[in-house]
């Protein structure tokens, strides 16, 4: 029998937290609700969660700090930020901490359910694909990118990629020396195309460029109005299976 997805909800407003917990449970999610940020990390550490829903404004800490600590325990777990703030800087900050999505209060609870289901479905599909695929290793100029291990090696130095960084670099490799459509990557990795997901993707592209900047022959180019192009001289590109 398939178990319900397990959600960690961190929300200090007791009335709202209680209502949201009940609503999620009515929609076939198992929910552990924490109303004080100082207990969130321990609760996460002693349980297995499929997704975290984190309020940003919390007593004793904030959602950004909790997300950062959670990612150190499990870099793969997705999370959604809830906040009363509407400043673009705060929303972008949330994505820089690796958020899969962001909702500004007040919000439609049905929208939250749809976002949770989309994220869990996307993660599940990616896992299934990962099980079925052989290990992919790409030689990109002076770099060796191991998709399965999520590592980028340059000589004796290793960079450990986040799950989304590895997925995005893999998509670029699948379109090597050709255009990877922005819309395709946003829908595949973020679940939708919007202003905020586009800005989030730009942050990840900037990170990948930084990782690859030791080889002048390897470049991620902007293709205006379309997407990105990972440029690698053909003699320097090898895909091993």
Q: Characterize the overall form.
A: elongated
DSSP, total strands: 13
Mean pLDDT across residues: 85
Q: Report the total helices.
A: 8
Largest sheet report = 5 strands, parallel
> Which runs of at least 5 residues are low in confidence (pLDDT < 50)?
129-134
Class per helix and strand makeup: alpha/beta
Q: What are the secondary-structure elements, in order, as H or E?
A: EHEHEHEHEHEEEEHEHHEEE
Strand content: 15-25%
Distance between the termini: 35 Å
What is the topological layout?
Layout: E1 6-10, H1 14-26, E2 30-34, H2 40-45, E3 51-55, H3 63-73, E4 79-83, H4 88-96, E5 101-104, H5 109-132, E6 137-140, E7 143-146, E8 151-154, E9 157-160, H6 163-174, E10 179-181, H7 182-190, H8 195-211, E11 219-223, E12 227-231, E13 237-240
Parallel strand pairs: 1-2, 1-3, 3-4, 4-5
Antiparallel strand pairs: 6-7, 6-13, 7-8, 8-9, 10-12, 11-12
Helix pairs in contact: 4-8, 6-8
Output the keywords.
241 residues; alpha/beta; 5-stranded antiparallel beta sheet; 13 strands
Give structural notes:
This protein has helices at 14-26, 40-45, 63-73, 88-96, 109-132, 163-174, 182-190, 195-211; strands at residues 6-10, 30-34, 51-55, 79-83, 101-104, 137-140, 143-146, 151-154, 157-160, 179-181, 219-223, 227-231, 237-240. With 241 residues, it is α/β, with parallel strands linked by helices. It is elongated and about 60 Å long.
């Amino acid at each position: 029998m398939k178990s319900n997805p397990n959600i960690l909800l961190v929300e200090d407003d007791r009335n709202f937290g209680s209502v949201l917990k009940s609503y999620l449970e009515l929609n076939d999610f198992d929910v552990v609700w924490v109303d004080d940020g100082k207990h969130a990390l321990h609760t996460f550490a002693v349980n297995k969660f499929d997704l975290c829903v984190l309020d940003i404004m919390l007593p004793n800490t904030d959602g950004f700090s909790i997300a950062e600590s959670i990612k150190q325990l499990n870099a793969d777990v997705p999370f959604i930020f809830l906040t009363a703030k509407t400043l673009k800087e705060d929303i972008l900050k949330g994505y820089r901490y690796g958020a899969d999505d962001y909702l500004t209060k007040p919000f439609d609870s049905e929208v939250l359910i749809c976002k949770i289901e989309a994220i869990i479905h996307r993660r599940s599909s990616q896992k299934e694909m990962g099980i079925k695929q052989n290990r992919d290793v790409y030689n990109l100029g002076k770099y060796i990118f191991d998709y399965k291990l999520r590592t980028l090696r340059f000589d004796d130095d290793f960079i450990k990629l986040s799950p989304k960084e590895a997925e995005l670099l893999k998509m670029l490799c699948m379109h090597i020396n050709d255009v990877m459509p922005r819309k395709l990557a946003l829908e595949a990795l973020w679940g939708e195309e919007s202003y905020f997901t586009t800005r989030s993707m730009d942050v990840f592209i900037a990170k990948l460029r930084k990782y690859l900047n030791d080889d002048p022959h390897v470049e991620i180019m902007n293709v205006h109005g379309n997407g990105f192009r990972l440029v690698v001289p053909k003699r320097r590109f090898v895909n091993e299976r």
